[in-house]
Amino acid sequence: MTLALSIESIQKKLTTHSFGKQILLFDQIDSTNNEMQRQAQSGLSEGGVILAEAQSQGKGRLGRKWFSPPGVNLYLSVLLRPSGPNPSPLLSLLSAVAAAEGIETTTGLSPTLKWPNDLLVSTPSGERKIGGILLEFSQGTLPTSPPFLTVGIGINVNVRSNQFPSEITAGATSLYELLHEEVDRNLLAAMLLNQCEAWYTRFLSGEQEVIRSVWLQRSCTLGKKVRVVQRYQEVTGVAEGITSEGALIVKMETGENRVFSAADVVHLNGLE
Ligand code: BTN
Fold it and tell me: What is the pTM of this model?
């Protein structure tokens, strides 16, 4: 039986200054990212967290749905208030690194990262997704509410694979399926927030290059043949690297390098 989420249990394990010091926990919410957008407008401070046992409209990247059954997974949004009009894309890589490290500290499993911020694990049947991150930047609607960034993290923790809807069965798994035991979601949430604050502090003190290199060490995208999918185009090439800003560099068959700052990537090695 999975333990319920508890603000007290999470906060006991935090080593942070601000992240997770304010947590709002819901039995069910439309989306923790949507709730964050409401709370941030009314003054929640940086590092504030929204958590839910279930989401009725969990959102994935590129308008997809995020499977959000009750009581088994982690649906968590953290509020960042970076300065300037456009948040750095490195914040997306930083969040993925923090989530992977949180999982590693809690379970010993070592997720890899698919650009820009999918968390994958390798299984006998290939790479499977165990988590994803949705960043949403919002301009404050009132002069008193400055712009802010919502970092929404979803991790498949104790969900059983036979609960997955058919469209994600082939591509997804959960920590439970890998470990054959339940994972303490409160511990995982705390470890993730600890890492998130640690990396955000390093980001603010100018350690962009370190973040880029830690992300690269965990990357399972580099060197792979990839299909880059955008709303109106798809191209195929080899993932060569990322720019200092975190955009993906892809070498086309023509030899030309193209740079993508927002897209979805499909790993093709072994598929084509
Ligand atoms: C993706 O891989 O497509 C991103 C998934 C992000 C899911 C999380 S769950 C918590 C937060 N609330 C949402 O509605 N989405 C994010």
Answer: 0.95
To test the pocket of ligand 1, the residue of 33, 65, 93, 129 to mutate (highest count of ligand atoms within 8 Å of its CB) is: 33
Task: Report d(CA 191, CA 83) in Å as an integer.
Answer: 26
The ligand 1 atom nearest the CA atom of 131:
2
What does pLDDT average to in each consecutive run of 10 residues of the chain (272 residues)? 91 98 98 96 94 98 95 98 84 96 98 96 94 93 80 98 93 97 98 98 94 95 94 93 93 94 86 48
Spatial neighbors of 69 by CB under 8 A, at least 6 apart, are 54, 159, 163
Does the beta carbon of 202 sit less than 6 angstroms from any atom of ligand 1? Answer: no
For residue 27, how far is its CA from the centre of ligand 1 (angstroms)? Answer: 17
Are the CB atoms for 134 and 60 separated by under 8 Å? yes
